[in-house]
DNA sequence: ATGAAAGCGCTAACAG
DNA sequence: CTGTTAGCGCTTTCAT
């Protein structure tokens, strides 16, 4: 393994010169730069990351902390990761994914205090997230995906749930639907302070009220069975429902299954819109689902860019940005079928 | 940020003593160890990972290289990652996931040559995988998940596809099925040398032949549409089929959709078994799928254990191990319905 | 535009 | 059982 000294000797310059052609922190004449580059190539030189990190006090490694639960990573999260990785690489950083469970904050504290990460992007942030505290105390620059309850002083990028819900509701109302049920995550998830669930809940209530409609909302366990149960509950609460808006990738198939089990067809009898859903998942269903597609890879890219910008210029301030999901119309939405002859119910 | 010197001064010992209580590489009296530990606690000391790595020439970081494609990580892969992370942590290593695409081997070469990874676990290994060559040339210890074509000199842990297919076929044959179609990954995937697709293909042919049956095999694109097309092809090739064995999580929903589209019920008309499938995905379908569940977390744990064992004792040799998937019977398999009255076709 | 040299914080001989 | 000290390979003043 060639070291910088070897390169310097072969190129007949000092080690500092070699270092400077590498970092570009001071002008080097074209002639000597070429000599050095040639020597590096000849020796197949690779700088030692540890030595560089020790001397410069910057590892050039960024951490992406993601809670890995049993359900796995959906296409949405994956797009996020690949977007982040590409941005990091473009900025000259390595991105390492750390599957630190929300379980042990000590683990995280250790990682952060060992100066092995220059900065961190936090995924799946809770409204009250102790990881944020831990990292701030350790003095690690961080960017959130999602927001804590009071994120006013933090950098974050998040989905614009308000706008997303409004657009989804507008699509359904535009088709003529009046009885729309929102299927959210579970009551336990709501209670735990999961931001997306809470924000969409409020946004749905506001959007429906804005249209002069009654917002019916149901919580569903994250499973097919949960979806089935939720749909049953939905019909109990709103027998005339003609559309379901759901934000629960695990429950959506249960909802569809229960619908067809009741002899109801999508979209003729009931329209379905799935929120924060990847095209891949949307295409799994028959018919393919009209969905609000999350801006996964853009979120990842923007988060990393904000972080590296701050790292390379500490004067750079907090970055706060919301991105809406995009409405992609597929086969699961249509105008409602008239259940009863016009005026018959009067 | 307290350093080792600070700890040594406070504890009134030398830095080396502090270092040795940390590494445990030489005996320390209980008395001084306590002094040192107390000083560490008081200063909230955390060793600097870079300095330690530079001096010891070991980063204590393990890399898990996983290609992240658009489809995302299934529950299977996630279980694998969490199993690996737990094992690494137990062995005193950090595990970083690196989403290096198969795209740029230069990227990987750089990572490896910078001595930032003590060892590497490679996921989704192809039969001919240049990443293996790159890492071997860089002298990075590695363990494969999956196998290259000639893996005789390498360490690996993989699914026992032969055994898994045999068990799945035995289950169906045991129920009375004779016309079983195997839906594999796409022809392109086969051609690219994707081990699991090739090994299961051969295993299926062998298993069916062993039962005196005709092995009908169909390739399917990794999508719902691919699954639908595959099922159509299957009926064209084997009109009397009563069971489908599939190893394609993306196509399976298309297969089920097409089945119900043709008015065929599962499992009464056609039984379905999904291979290398997580319980989570199996439960998404209606009825829930009988599946061969992959030993995800065990694979991850064993791979990391083999790697750390080798790192801590270079004398330790290559580790090669196969683990079968477990048959989990759910609602998608049953005895075939008699299509024609007994003896009527003679 | 270049060189010399002092660390960065830790490990691991080498000495007792 | 403990202390002294020479690096690990690089960055970054300070000189010139």
TrEMBL record, chains A, B:
Keyword Repeat (UniProt): no
PROSITE patterns on file: HTH_LACI_1, HTH_LACI_2
Keyword field: DNA-binding, Transcription, Transcription regulation
Residues annotated as domain HTH lacI-type: 2-56
Coiled coil: none
Signal sequence coordinates: none
InterPro entries: HTH_LacI, LacI/GalR-like_sensor, Lambda_DNA-bd_dom_sf, Peripla_BP_I
GO molecular function: DNA-binding transcription factor activity; transcription cis-regulatory region binding
Name of this protein: DNA-binding LacI/PurR family transcriptional regulator
Organism of derivation: Micromonospora jinlongensis
Source organism phylogeny: Bacteria, Bacillati, Actinomycetota, Actinomycetes, Micromonosporales
């Amino acid at each position: 393994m060639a070291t910088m000294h070897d390169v310097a000797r072969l190129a007949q310059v000092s080690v500092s010169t070699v270092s400077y052609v590498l970092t570009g922190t001071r002008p080097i004449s074209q002639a000597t730069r070429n000599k050095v580059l040639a020597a590096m190539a000849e020796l197949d030189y690779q700088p030692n990351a540890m030595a560089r990190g020790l001397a410069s006090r910057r590892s050039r490694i960024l951490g992406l902390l993601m809670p890995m639960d049993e359900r796995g990573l959906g296409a949405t999260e994956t797009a996020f990761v690949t977007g982040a990785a590409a941005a990091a690489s473009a900025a000259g950083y390595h991105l390492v994914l750390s599957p630190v469970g929300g379980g042990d904050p000590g683990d995280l504290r250790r990682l952060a205090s060992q100066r092995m990460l220059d900065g961190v992007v936090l995924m799946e942030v809770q409204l009250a997230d102790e990881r944020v505290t831990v990292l701030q105390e350790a003095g690690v620059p961080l960017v959130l995906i999602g927001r804590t309850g009071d994120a006013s002083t933090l950098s974050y990028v998040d989905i614009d749930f308000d706008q997303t819900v409004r657009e989804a509701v507008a699509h359904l109302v535009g088709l003529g639907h009046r009885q729309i049920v929102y299927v959210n995550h579970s009551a336990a998830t709501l209670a735990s302070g999961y931001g997306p669930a809470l924000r969409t809940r409020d946004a749905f209530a506001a959007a429906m009220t804005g249209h002069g409609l009654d917002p019916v909302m149901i919580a569903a366990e994250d499973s097919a069975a949960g979806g089935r149960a939720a749909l049953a509950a939905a019909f109990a609460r709103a027998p005339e429902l003609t559309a379901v808006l759901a934000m629960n990738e695990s429950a959506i198939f249960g909802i569809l299954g229960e619908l067809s089990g009741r002899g109801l067809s999508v979209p003729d009898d009931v329209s379905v819109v799935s929120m924060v859903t990847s095209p891949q998942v949307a295409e799994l269903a028959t018919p393919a689902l009209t969905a609000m597609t999350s801006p996964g890879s853009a979120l990842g890219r923007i988060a990393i860019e904000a972080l590296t910008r701050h790292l390379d210029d500490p004067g750079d301030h907090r970055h706060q940005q919301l991105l809406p999901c995009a409405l992609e119309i597929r086969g699961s939405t249509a105008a409602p079928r008239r259940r009863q002859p016009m005026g018959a119910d009067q």
